[in-house]
Amino acid sequence: MDSQENALQEEQNVKEVAAESVEATERKQYENKKEVLERIREIAHGEEAPQKDEVDYLKTVFYKLHIAEREARLKEYIDGGGDPEQYQITPDPDEEAFKAEMGVIKEKRQQQLRELEQEKQQNLERKLAIIEKIKTMITSPEEANKSYKEFKTLQEEWRDIKNVPAERANELWRNYQLYVEQFYDLLKLNSEAREYDFKKNLEAKTRLCEAAEKLAEEPDVISAFHQLQKLHQEYRETGPVARELREEIWQRFKTASTVINKRHQQHFEDLRAKEEENLTRKTELCEKVEAICAEENKGSGDWERHTKQIMELQTEWKTIGFAPQKMNVKIFERFRAACDDFFGRKAQYFRSLKDTFKENADKKRALVEKAKELQDSTDWKSTSDKLINLQREWKTIGMVPKKLGDQLWEEFLAACNKFFEARNAAGANNRSDERENLEKKRSIIEQLKAAAEEAGDNLQQRVQQLVEEYQQVGHVPFKEKDKLYEEYHAVLDKLYKELNISVAKRRLSKFKDNLKQVAERGENALDNERARLMRQYEQLKQEVQTYENNLGFLNASSKKGNSLIDEMNRKVQKLKDEVQLVRDKIKAIDAENRQ
Description:
Blueprint: H1 2-25, H2 33-45, H3 52-79, H4 93-137, H5 141-146, H6 148-160, H7 166-186, H8 191-214, H9 221-237, H10 243-294, H11 300-318, H12 325-374, H13 380-396, H14 402-426, H15 431-454, H16 459-472, H17 478-519, H18 525-551, H19 559-594
Helix pairs in contact: 1-7, 1-9, 1-10, 2-3, 2-4, 4-6, 4-7, 8-9, 8-10, 9-10, 10-11, 10-12, 11-12, 12-13, 12-14, 15-16, 15-17, 17-19, 18-19
């Protein structure tokens, strides 16, 4: 029985150590560093002895909150346009205070450990002395009978002595139990006293068995486990029972202990499984952030969309509990590194974009100033050419922020309109020529309409000829020019659309007819042609996107603005038609390959 009991006790010791780790995950949840610091101060300056597991837990929580705050300040700095390389980490008064209190606690713990080790050594010497005294009492039955009262006193003294050095505890207990049982076995002359002791010990151990069995109903698994440790200590300190009952009572107590230990072990495993699940979830979040970082950001919209996605993942991260201790810091550092990489590159992009916007805005401001300098000129021909050149130059300048871009465009357009309106007003004497030009342009428009109805193989050549004639005609009356402009471009848009469709069909048909010849050049000829078309397709798509982006910065509030937008829309449509043609060619190659 001694070896069995010692084995179980060693198992209980191991489980008690593991329980400390479990309890650490169930401790109070702290909302901020101030709460943690307040608790650390209580421990550092209070009467209670510092408990290592709680101090370690508080340290982990404090630095988790500390790092989170520091990361939030860095993100705010980067989002505000700051340079990550220039960021300075400022000293944290809370961290300094925390370190100071931890120093006090460390000294208290060292003193506590020194005192505890000294006490354990003294207890060891006292218990060794008790064992020696009992050994002297078991030389004969007579000696045992004479020493019975002293023996009972020694047992009480043994029970009062608590901790001894861990490495000597099991050996000490085995020796004590051995000599106690030998004493009882020699105690023959005073059989009534022996039987009375056996009876009282049986009652005590039965009570301990019942208490251990009742712990199976305790809902708090951790509390039940700790209560069981106290019952084990009490069982060890209770004397023996009659020899024929020793194995039976021990098996009952061991069985009850096994139930509690299994519940505790299952609880412990469930917590570990939850930590593993948390690690899996956090690993998935890391992979998602890393995947977002790997995606290409073609513009501000992509950066903002990906930022929103990452911030949602950061919010989800905060809802997940601890991962296993050995991986908790590593997985957090992986997640933080991916986020830092994204926000660092985002800051760099917007710094460069800000520089580009500033450069473009400066160029447009310069054109606005030049237009304003020319707006009051009466040199109609020369100034007209200069302003037209300025308008062309304006189109070559890249994007600026929309609000500023609209403002600059309005100023530029107002200056141009002021000059052209003054020029038109000054040309009142040319009304008859303008009226004649109006009739000429109307005649050309009617010819274009007729050409649209008649169609024919030479439609494109005919349209081009009429367009050139139209462009050579001079100014028309100011009040009529917008209406005429809309009518002219309406019929021209219709013609160009039909021409584009017709030309595209002919080009596609011719391309399909030539596919057989291309295929005969070699087994890779079609694949090479397809690769060339794919490059052309991507290039055209990029051009369409560029035009559409530029359209977003144009203001259509004025007539001049409207004409510019219409012209760009026509270019966009023409590019889109070309994109469709290239797509149809690629499909034709794919069909040929399948055949």
